TrEMBL record:
The keyword Chaperone does not apply. It comes from Octopus sinensis (East Asian common octopus). SUPFAM superfamilies: Glyceraldehyde-3-phosphate dehydrogenase-like, C-terminal domain, NAD(P)-binding Rossmann-fold domains. Belongs to the Gfo/Idh/MocA family. Residues 142-253 form the GFO/IDH/MocA-like oxidoreductase domain. Pfam families: GFO_IDH_MocA, GFO_IDH_MocA_C3. Residues 7-95 form the Gfo/Idh/MocA-like oxidoreductase N-terminal domain. The keyword Oxidoreductase applies. It comes from the Eukaryota. Keywords: Oxidoreductase. This is Glucose-fructose oxidoreductase domain-containing protein 1-like. One of its GO terms (molecular function) is oxidoreductase activity.
Length: 347
């Protein structure tokens, strides 16, 4: 068993932060600092979980020498400067997958990740660590050459009688296109090893918020595969409904909820490849966090001479380049909604 501890700074306090800290501590990670924009919130959680340092000044946490890895789950207007600054001074970074509408900001974070390839710069897409998605990818060859993909996601509404935050503002990175479509675009590219070259999109907005609450778009991939996606955020339910279908030359794979089915031409019925109990969105997210943490420690190598932790590149892990490319696709979809025509994606 490896003896070294990886020292972690946490940025942003969310409903899952306590869970994340507990599973990190169980996997040879030590939490040494905590940041939140509200100092009282940071102080309360730091005392509760015995974290030695907390602050509402993110630079105070980033520059600490006892931090190897920072984990950032914040709104985009905090996430991008924190992540870019951290990578530029030699910290490993994990952040939530963010599709910022600001192209200049995205180019900055992409350059930081590209300039320091020895550092982990991973945007966290929960679908990358979802067991059902992994199984779907493993069985892709069963159905032959992919002909088209259809994805439908119905999820919880952003609109609340008690809260109006950045998720309700497109200009701040909110809306289903920025938040949910970014995950789907990334995972489609991951499953079929390709990227979109042309898109056509249409967005729907509710009057009470300044962000899109429904998005439907078509992507033409560089392999000439067509992908059709519909996302809506109208549900009051805490359980999202995801359907992911890959239709191939020999049959199809259908992920419905947490259950994966396969049908091959000539068979009389579908074969169930996996069946899981229904989980709430928060339970599903926590499970993906746990899967990510289980594989995270083995991504690092400790150099005894330099007393430095380096990252082993892994093709299954997204990076800031992937996040920037996804942002370019989303910008093209948004422009397509305005022009009502297919547009090329400008990477």
């Amino acid at each position: 068993m490896k003896k070294y501890k990886i020292m972690v700074g946490i940025f942003g306090i969310e409903s899952f932060t306590t869970y994340l800290i507990n599973i990190l501590r169980s996997k040879h990670f030590s939490i040494t600092a905590l940041w939140d924009k509200d100092l009282a919130t940071a102080s309360n959680l730091a005392q509760k979980l015995s974290i030695p340092f907390y602050s509402d000044d993110y630079d105070e946490v980033i520059i600490r020498k006892d931090i190897d890895l920072i984990i950032v789950f914040t709104a985009p207007h905090f996430l991008i400067p924190i992540s870019t600054r951290a990578v530029s001074i030699g910290k490993h970074v994990i952040c939530n997958f963010c599709a910022s509408p600001d192209r200049l900001e995205m180019s900055g974070i992409m350059e930081a990740g590209e300039y320091y390839p020895q550092l982990l710069s991973m945007p966290f897409n929960p679908y990358r660590f979802d067991d059902s998605i992994t199984l779907l990818r493993d069985h892709l060859d069963d159905v032959g050459d992919p002909l088209y993909i259809r994805v439908t996601l119905s999820c919880h509404t952003f609109v609340s009688n008690s809260r109006y935050d950045w998720k309700c503002e497109t200009s701040m990175g909110g809306g289903v296109l920025n938040i949910h479509a970014s995950h789907i675009i990334d995972i489609v590219g991951y499953i079929i090893a390709g990227k979109p070259v042309k898109v056509f999109g249409s967005l729907l907005r509710q009057k009470v918020v300044h962000s899109d609450t429904m998005a439907t778009f078509e992507m033409v991939m560089d392999t000439d595969l067509h992908v059709f996606v519909t996302i809506s955020a109208f549900l009051e339910s805490k359980v999202s409904n995801l359907e992911f279908i890959v239709s191939g030359s020999r049959g199809y794979l259908s992920l419905r909820g947490n259950n994966l089915f396969r049908w091959i031409y000539g068979e009389s019925e579908e074969t169930c490849l996996s069946r899981r109990c229904v989980r709430t969105d928060s339970e599903e997210f926590n499970l993906c966090l746990s899967n990510m943490t289980n594989s995270l420690y083995d991504m690092f190598i400790y150099n005894e001479e330099q007393r430095k932790i380096t990252y082993q590149a892994n093709e299954n892990i997204p990076n800031f380049i992937d996040m920037g490319n996804t942002s370019a696709v989303i910008n093209a979809i948004r422009m397509s909604d305005n022009t009502r025509r297919f547009l090329n994606v400008e990477y």
